[in-house]
Amino acid sequence: MRNVLKFFIVIYGLMCLSSAFVEAFADMLPEGGVMPEISLTAPELPEHRTYLGLAEQGRFDISQIKADVLIIQIFSMYCPHCQREAPSVNSLHQRIENDRNLKDKVRMIGIGVGNSDFEVNFFRKTYHVLFPLFSDPDFSIHKKVGEVRTPYFICIKSNKDQTHRIFYSKLGPVGDADAFLNLISQQLRSK
Quick one: 18 and 107 in the same domain? Predict the structure, then answer.
């Protein structure tokens, strides 16, 4: 009986720690908060630089991306959920590109946490990803966004002062694409 009681006390303690851990990171990218500064290397593909509104190669800050709304997918090549979600994310990107009200205002990027350029390119080719993907081999970006699990989606709206306000910050799949696109459209209307 004592061993059973000890077992339940240990399980309860682990649940409390787990809950505290999740709550601690849930506020790392709170909706309504400001996106941390993130610097990336411009894509090699000219069409990706054009898509992001970047004139040259080299380093750039996400605040330089020409978009009213930026959707960031935090992924990993090794994440089975990210692999399974790839067709839905590609479909979302295609729907944005085919919508005349969203096409020139919304951009998508992916950041492969812990992934090298080779791994990110492998993911791009394997899952036919058409929007720009970036590597984060040393987890430096991952740390800035709170070491979130994958896939994680962040939507930010550009402010006039070059900061970005987070209006969507969630772990897991996007889910209902229509509801997600409606949320983005609402943000675009609320200038």
Answer: no
